Amino acid sequence: METAIPLFIADVHLGKLASMLRMLGFDTVYSNTFSNAALVNIALEQQCVLLTRNVTIGRHQHALQTFIIIHDAPAEQLKTVLQHFHLLAHIQPFSRCMVCNGALEPVAKETVINELPEKTAQYYHQFWQCTHCRRFYWKGPHYNRMVHFIQKITGDSIR
Known about the structure:
Blueprint: E1 8-10, H1 15-23, E2 28-30, H2 36-46, E3 49-52, E4 65-68, H3 74-84, E5 104-107, H4 109-112, H5 118-123, E6 127-130, E7 136-137, H6 141-154
Parallel strand pairs: 1-2, 1-3, 3-4
Antiparallel strand pairs: 5-6, 6-7
Helix pairs in contact: 1-3
């Protein structure tokens, strides 16, 4: 029996971890404006695992699933979460918006060319758009660095 992939919510101290989890395709709610009470309420309502550095947050909420992050380095935090929740086989890189957590969908260059920076439209041909915030993504110079980072974290090659 396969276990469900958890949904996550990250506290104010874990913005980089949230972004990296999104980069790997994991549904991760994050805002640096959430109070501890809001984090707990959202985690309970949406049945998310609360990723936190705060050992006392929600300790009286027995239905709350929390995972305490002890490492300071975001890459180590990510490795810990991936290992603890057995997520390596479930990675779907670049399927979520790293900014807002929305799903990314491929879009035809012709339909978005007028919304792209001129050099981007000139040199790149594959594009994705966030279904929520409408931000565009493409495999620019940053893409290879991100792929290398993912390979280093997972020990695996990706597409």
